[in-house]
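Assemble and predict.
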Amino acid sequence: MTTLRNKQKWRPFFSGLGSLPGLLIFFLLILYPLAALLLQVGFPNVFNTPISWKPSWQPLQQLFANPLNGQAIVNSLILGAGSAILATFLATLVAFARVRGGKKMGKILDTAVWIVFFAPSYVIAQGWVSLMQEGGILSELLNLPNGLTQWFFSKEGLVVVMALRYIPFIYFALVPSIQNIGLEYEQAGRLLGANAGYRLRRITLPLLLPALLAGASLAFAEGFGDFGMAAAITPQMHIPLITYQIYASLDQTPVNYPSAASLSLILIVIMGLAFYLQFHFLKTRSFATISTHSKEQTEIRNHHRGFSLVAFFILFLAFFLPIGSTIIQSLLKNYVTHLDAHSWTLVHYKSLFKPGGSGLQALLRTLVYALTNAFLTMILGLFLAYQMMFRRSKINQFINLLMIATIAVPGIVLAAGFIFAYNATWLIPLHFVIYGTPICLGMAYLAGSLPYAVRLQIGSMQQVSGNLATAAFSLGASNLRVIAQIVMPLVRTTTVSTFFMTMTGTMFELPASSLLYPPGSPPFPETIQQKFNAFEFARGSAMSILGLIIVLLLYMLGRWVESMLLRSSNSVGVE
Amino acid sequence: MLIEFRGVSKSYGDKEVLQNITLNIPSGAFLALLGPSGCGKTTLLSILAGFQDIQAGELRVAGEVWARPGYIVPPEVRNVGMVFQDFALWPHMSVFENVAFGLKVKRLPRQQIVDRVEEVLSLVRMQEYRHAMVHQLSGGQKQRIAIARALAPNPQILLMDEPLSSLDTKLREQMRWEILEFSSAAKTTTIYVTHDQIEALSMASHIVLLNAGKVEQTGSPQGLYTQPSTAFAAHFMGAANVLPVQVVRSDHSSIMVDWKGYQMLLDGKKVVQRMPYLLLLRPHHLHLHTYDGTVEWKDRFHPSLSSGDHIFSWTGVIMQRAYHGAQWLYKVEILLPHGKEILEVWQSEAYPIKSKVWVWTEKKSCTLVAGGESEQSRYQKKLG
């Protein structure tokens, strides 16, 4: 009894100490790299030898010396806003088709939107480039004269492509909102004589406004900070974008650290603002529109086939058309002038599996990175989420806040931060200059995936009653035992899905892969990008498709494992 | 007749929720659709509103067909007002905009809209809230605005779907009076869905009692309460002691029944003797008196009663009691020649537990209902 009481007495103290490993992880992975990057804005010589802490406005002043930077910021703002508006419109159509289209249609549309969500931006963008470029697949298929698809390589074309890509962000916000609007709000309008259009304008859309604005803010943030799209399209379209300028400042000679840091700061501020707006709109959703009635079978609804067809067409454009174009591209012989039975080949796929070939090496390398990252993310995510949920302390609250903020930091900024952080002169005496090593790239992958994993795990653990852990503690169980025997069994399907989601995400992670890969050992995404930059579209496309197939197989494996776990536990899990 | 349901049936897949409903609702009636959850009352209301189609039968309003299999007049053109269970006031609109909505849809001139909104807001005594937003209103105020919105376009029928269910008990009692007042001022035919028999009894001019998708009984509130035609109706219309009895004999003016050996001569016409019957005794029609074992009971209970023929009495013991403010609810175990029976009795005086009492009632308070013991236990189970 005495022992137990002593344990109880000291628990708050140990709980604070228990948070320290978590804090250290976040410091090394996120806080330090971001601080190192942003420090550069005000202290441009902090990374010089010798170190100088003299503050200066020079980096911000110099930023606009290169007219491309200003142009990139404006372009990113315009494209972010334009694609958010168009995506909102398109996502609204798809979301209504989803809610009004019956259960089966809903499942199909949900799956299609998830596919769009998971599809890597740059793979989609490359598909569009293959399709629309001069002499591209569309020109070949339809025998179009030269110049007819050039309109696509403009800001307007890019807005369309980006809008299609960001549909899921708005869709996910919108569908539950539409579902939650009590049917009687619309029925009240019907009984008062309002037709469908009038009801949509005066009742439904105003009620959906908070969700629409939240989704649009998120889509804007995604568009503004999207590196994959910029990386694939900027070289083709000559439309400078802020994320590509950050990459170019660090990757092209002469390297311009202050410019990269200043652009990153602007990117973070604008994206932070967009995320703030998103939270603000979600918080102001004070309309208590959730019906107390059962929504099933309270009204005859005509399932509009036209609506569903439009939704499928939009999703076809968003994913299946660009991916179809990538598939076709990957099967075409080089330098095909017109399509016929002799234009097709599997040589690009065969070359990928050539022993010692760059494609296979890159693939295997990335599989190792993905597996390691998924494993570490799963374990650390579980522990950190546990700390935050069941071991409340000031440090944990701080880590939680930091983690939410990190989700708003685009991958390219975090990756840029790693360059400054782990190439710093003060690390030389410590023998800790890890920039350019696989460890640095692995850490960057972990930094990108860990916040999402922790959020997912917290979401799952929130459904586990705190009393379950308290009951175990009161019986003298240690933290480790509580995680292993109480929490883990209840959240295991989320833990498994975290593993597979991280693994598939790492397979196509571009920003860190591009900026941090060890010299001579490019990972898979960077190799694909290099192929496209070298105009080896067919080879690059074959690699993208192979990657997608692997991701799909991993996803299916993940779902299978999850279903097995759920079945074996006879639904004891909370997910 | 304003509203006519002729053999209306409705199913959701294999589940038949309304079976062969035939009803005639006169113009100007305040009709309560009463029944337990899942009995089909809201579906019937939805059919009247135009949100649901029907698989059989016909719905006519003022002689015009509103629904038949494969045909439905859409809600937009029916001129029906509806007050929803949770009001369904649009939260992004002010009180004025909510009430004016139906008038704007009709493209009435601006001044006419303003005048009509003022008129209905004054009817529900909410003029000073015309600029308020919905979230600034209390539950009762929301209720009034919902009524005002429904009444603004002068509907020929007003539908109310359990409109008091989201209010607290005190407000509910107040709103009953107000709804009656508003609906009679608006001179509309009102169809009021409720599962609360007190609401139905106190507000309606007509009651339709539904059970498992069928009409169990229709009639006036008094008729349903005092002369329920089934055990279900007896139970549903209020607290009841429903007791299985056997008819010994009957003629054109009286019926002799046997209740566990206790014989009672009741008023009534000749009935089929072989059928099972139930005796309905409402708890507040039963009375208690302290039993001292010596006194001639009938003179002590009620001096105005001159003949023992008009009353029935039993001795019993108070087993349980619960204080309800104005009255006590007792469970009394009474002795019958061939057994015991527990009766519920409402009484204003306090009697201690285990005390011996007389339980008595007047003959006119005893009602005979067709139905056997199995039916009785089935309904009791269903009603919880």
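Chain B touches chain A at residues 12, 42, 46, 49-53, 72, 74-82, 84-86, 88, 90-92, 101-102, 105-106, 135, 149-150, 153, 166 (CB under 8 Å).
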